[in-house]
């Protein structure tokens, strides 16, 4: 099936109409990460600040034929220092987003969550994939498949709220949240169904706001109206979910990678719950996926400027 990535193209085109988001790029010391940064800057999605060993960055750029132009460079001797310096640029007000370069995700996130110097808020930090799945009209958010290994019920409340806020920042017509499990009925022997029921009641009581939450739902009746109809599930979410909340990291990782490698989907990634959005890219990402991640961060940063209190509720 040919995948035209039209959802990402619409996202990038819209974000390009906004002012570029000042973005601290931690340790962009390979050609792949530099190319994504340069293209994002060219399209006006981000205004990058390159943080890392200056000599290495310029050498990599020269070898790959990449023109850095007048992009600002902040010297840091190694990847750990680059992560710490990038976080400091946020504290100084010089950056409104972070972007992972060629360092390990753990290195960057360790500086983000550092208790005294990091970028914590009252929210749990979580990751969202914004999936462009062939055959689906709209993008699909999957969370959390990268940060929280076995989230508690309270963690899941934050994960759901982060995803709803993302959907609103991306101008989804409605945030329809499916809390996934292996079944659509509450079963005391399956803890994820108990969490799903509790999250729905939290939404009823205003502890989760801005979206429509339903669960437990199995994957089929979360995204297929026909499956929901066959199982007699009457819900504004069932069959129409655009946010899928998985029970744990393993389930989320399997779901996202199944869509990528079996259905040809692309997966832009963003980390939420910190003071600024964090762009996580992979070497396997296509150029349009990397740009979509930048576009998502730009829209999230805009929403934070317009609704700054949202990040600490």
Alpha-beta content class: alpha/beta
* Global Rg: 19 Å
The CATH H-level homologous superfamily of the domain at 122-273:
Isopropylmalate Dehydrogenase
Question: What's the total number of strands?
Answer: 11
In which order are the strands of the major sheet placed? Answer: 3-2-1-4-11-10-5-6-9-7-8
CATH class of the domain at 122-273: Alpha Beta
Helix content: 40-55%
CATH topology of the domain at 122-273: Isopropylmalate Dehydrogenase
Mean pLDDT: 93
Beta-strand level of the residues, as a percent range? 15-25%
**Shape summary:** globular
| Distance, first to last CA | 42 Å
Q: Which stretches of 5+ consecutive residues score pLDDT under 50?
A: 309-313
Q: Which oligomerization state do the chains in this entry correspond to? A: single chain
Individual helix count: 11
